[in-house]
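call fold(seq) -> tokens
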Amino acid sequence: MEEKSNLWAFGTRQVVYAAIGAALYGVFSWATNIVPLPAAGNVSFRPAVAVLIFFGVAFGPWVGLLAGLLGTYLGDALTGWGLYWNWSVGGALMGFFPGLIMATITDYRNRRSIGLGILFGAIGIAVGMLFASLTEILVGGIDLSTALIGYFTPAFIGNLIVTIVLLPILMIAYQSVVTARGR
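ret:
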């Protein structure tokens, strides 16, 4: 199993995991960015959020933060949307918060571990999407109601649903791979 002793470690291993996470999140986001959620803004269906949450849970807060920041930018750039710094920071926050439980998980098949992953994923989604949505008031000139109802609500609900459904699958699959490798 991955070394869990230092939650705040940042070295070559974390950079590599963050790059892999960013690439996966960015490409998978691009693949589904064409599916808009009912919203006032450019809020799309992103099952890739579960991948981002998983990378935070499995490899820590710095990996989740970088995967979210760079992956959001990559997905939006591939789609042709350009750079929206506030949504990239929102993605970073979505990956960061689940990473805070990385050191507590020793078995990714354990119900408690999966529950913690979903809980901290939900916190990350709430904080990240709230940040991105509220900063649209300044960046995009929208009002508070549009930020909360048109941006935050569909983004939060959509991301939470895919996390509840897909994160347990990713965690169980990861544990199976790690166990089979004998680490």
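The helical segments are 12-32, 49-59, 61-79, 85-99, 111-139, 144-181.
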